[in-house]
UniProtKB/TrEMBL annotation:
Matching SUPFAM superfamilies: Acyl-CoA N-acyltransferases (Nat)
Protein name: Acyl-homoserine-lactone synthase
Keywords: Autoinducer synthesis, Quorum sensing, S-adenosyl-L-methionine, Transferase
Catalytic activity entry: a fatty acyl-[ACP] + S-adenosyl-L-methionine = an N-acyl-L-homoserine lactone + S-methyl-5'-thioadenosine + holo-[ACP] + H(+)
Top-level taxon: Bacteria
One Gene Ontology term from the biological process aspect of the record: signal transduction
Organism: Devosia crocina
InterPro entries registered for this protein in UniProt: Acyl_CoA_acyltransferase, Autoind_synthase
EC code: 2.3.1.184
Alphabetical list of Gene3D superfamilies matching this protein: 3.40.630.30
Length: 213
């Protein structure tokens, strides 16, 4: 599997059209987010702009997963659409944070598997990217199950407010602490030891004493 870092709208990138169409299939057709439905069957919104970075995962040239990251000091989904979920304070200056959205794995790559390697790769790639960009925290909005999944890989996750019903589902906004330790724990928990974004500028050094399982 390979992770492609696509910065900005970059509509000419060969994976972006597949990304928008696969997102529509997953978030609209399968998950029922009717507010996103478009006649052209493409999930694309105002946050798919020059501020966004897309992490797109391929296997043998086929798109199998992706996600989007937007700096918190630029217009973002959390503070614009889901601001009602935020009741607490962000951990530090917004310039040190980013909003993680539109996480997905192609349905046929996760059916019947408790922990898909595609999800593992995207989790690790997100933390690699956050470190390389100098972020200290990442926000996200998700179901409680996704929050529990993040906690299960060893991440420190802090809710920004109590869960609320969004489209009939319990939904929460939270932030993840970004650190080399967090990258180490997610790699260890998922077995994904390889560097997924080779161009990352950080130097990763595992802790001297591994944490207990």
């Amino acid at each position: 599997m390979q992770v492609h870092v696509v910065r900005g709208r970059n509509s000419d990138h060969p994976l972006m059209e597949a990304n928008y169409r696969l997102r529509h299939r997953i978030f609209v057709d399968l998950q029922g987010w009717e507010a996103l439905r478009r006649e052209d069957q493409r999930d694309i919104d105002r946050f798919d702009n020059e501020d966004a970075t897309h992490l797109l995962l391929t296997d043998r040239g086929e798109l199998v997963g992706g996600s989007r990251i937007t700096p918190l000091d630029r217009p973002n989904l959390l503070q614009t659409v889901f601001h009602g979920l935020v009741h607490g304070d962000f951990p530090t200056d917004l310039s040190l944070g980013a909003d993680w959205t539109r996480f997905y794995v192609r349905p046929d790559r996760r059916e019947g598997r408790r922990r898909a390697p595609e999800s593992a790769a995207l989790f690790c790639a997100m933390m690699e990217y956050a470190l390389s960009e100098g972020y200290s925290f990442i926000t996200f909005v998700s179901s409680l199950a996704m929050l529990e999944h993040g906690t299960s890989v060893g991440w420190t996750i802090t809710p920004l407010g109590p869960p609320a019903l969004v489209d009939g589902k319990a939904t929460v906004a939270a932030w993840i602490a970004v650190s080399e330790q967090a990258l180490y724990t997610v790699r260890r928990a998922t077995g994904m030891s390889q560097v997924l974004i080779p161009a990352s500028s950080f130097v990763f050094t595992p802790p001297s004493a591994p944490l207990g399982m």
